[in-house]
Amino acid sequence: MSSTEPARRRIPPSRIVRAGEILELVRRGDANTTGQLADQLGIARSTVNDRLELLLASGMLTLDGPTAVGSRGRPASTLSFNPRSGVTLAAQLGISGVRTAVTDLSGEILASRMTDIDVTSGAVPVLGVVIEDFGRLLDQLGVETAKVHGIGVGMPARIELATNAPGADWSGEAVQDVLAGWLAVPVFVDHDVNLLAFGEHCARTDEPETLISVKVGTVIGCGIVVNGKVVQGVSKLAGEIGHTRVGGSQEPCSCGNVGCLNAVASGAALAKQLRARGLDAPNARAVAALARSGDVEAGHAVRMAGRDLGEVLASVVNLLNPGVISLWGYLAEAEEQLIAGIRESIARSAQSGPAGDVRIEPATMGADAGLYGAAMVVVEHALSPSAVDAYLLTLQSA
Asked: What residues form DSSP beta bridges with 324?
């Protein structure tokens, strides 16, 4: 990395192998001294020390010691992972705006900004704005691009992009090509709900086997994490619950069908309903604000939306038996009414066992959940043992 000197003594590539495993053990808190690392990996201390020399020179590890007593009675320096040794770039694209951020290697947001965009213009011009914002944030922090380990981008679902930006090229490949052309680092692109779910999984300490993360904003969608892995589906469209039919509704949906959950219970749908009744509700955020302020009509509308959402989620609960359903988005800000409606329907329509075990709660990371998920996808790749070994090799070659 640009802020540290590479190791002065060149170590052959064969003596870099397993350095990534050492970093992994320290980062996960499974070992923090040379002796513990040698015991965990079943290798000699001298071998560990060779790898530590590189990891310390890179800045990825630091020494905090001596603070402990080693197995041979001598003080043992304690090793710590240094998340500020590098950064990620994260972006969360919406239909009308994009939030960008620079995070450290723990996913902590160091700086962020929000910019209005027009997705109908396509990936190239919009991503030009994203790149400019990334550059401004890096300059603000005084961080050089050499410290960037990767870029993570969350995008609206394919159906929403096709509806709101017909004819514009918003494929994941197009986004990757533009960003990789700007900066030669790994670029990860996924649906925003998948990154929300992954971020929620990473942020939690209880580690539920199955987690559902539901976006309840202008549109509705969900991400699914099972055993730490995001479920994509064969067409990478898993979680499109916003286009599930709701019984008794003939409301037209932007996808071309009628009665979709999005058409009756999304933030956009509720705003339309409340405006028809004379309320000042231009968007989903305004709907949530009205509900929180005690407006009876808005509170009732959000609770009814929760019931419709709960009817759809009841099938998900029966199928996947999740431990947690986390909620994110503008409507989640009116959590009292929304969660009450969801619970009513799940209690009524799902099997009592799964319904009784699932926890329904706001997202742990709040508004930052999507950016955190995008950053953590980069982190999990960049700090994998093989990626760390390759990175250290590039430092040796510099």
From this structure: 211, 359
C-alpha 161/C-alpha 8 separation (Å) is 51
Phi, psi of 195, deg, nearest 5: -70, -35
Domain boundary among 32, 66, 84: 84
Rounded-to-integer distance, Cα 157 and Cα 362, Å: 21
pLDDT of 152 reads 97
Co-location of 191 and 224 in the same domain: no
Tokens coding 6: 């590479």
Q: Are residues 149 and 244 in the same domain?
A: no
- The two beta strands, 148-155 and 87-93, are parallel
Closest Cα to residue 99, out of 113, 85, 89, 88?
113
pLDDT on residue 4: 31
Helices 267-276 & 296-320 angle (0-180, nearest 10): 150
Q: Distance of CA 130 to CAs 107, 127, 194, Å?
A: 19, 5, 20
Among 387, 393, 370, residue whose Cα is nearest residue 109? 370
Give the CA radius of gyration of the chain. 24
Domain CATH for 33: 1.10.10.10
Which residue range forms the structural domain that includes residue 263?
A: 205-363
The pLDDT value given to residue 213: 96
Q: Residue 8 has what pLDDT?
A: 42
Residue 8 belongs to a domain:
no
Amino acid identity at 153: V
Instruction: Give the span between the Cα atoms of 253 and 255, in whole angstroms.
Output: 5
Residues of the chain with pLDDT under 70: 1-14, 65-76, 398
Assign residue 313 the CATH number of its domain.
3.30.420.40
How many CB atoms within 10 Å of residue 73? 7
Q: 178 with 188: CB under 8 angstroms? A: no
CA dist list (Å): 291 to 280, 311, 338, 341, 366: 12, 21, 10, 13, 19
Of 84, 99, 119, the residue that ends a domain is 84
Non-local CB neighbours of 274 within 8 Å, separated by 6+ positions:
281, 287, 290, 297, 298, 301
Listing DSSP states for 377-391 in one string gives HHHHHHTSHHHHHHH
**Total structural domains within the chain:** 3
Backbone φ and ψ of 241, nearest 5°: -70, -20
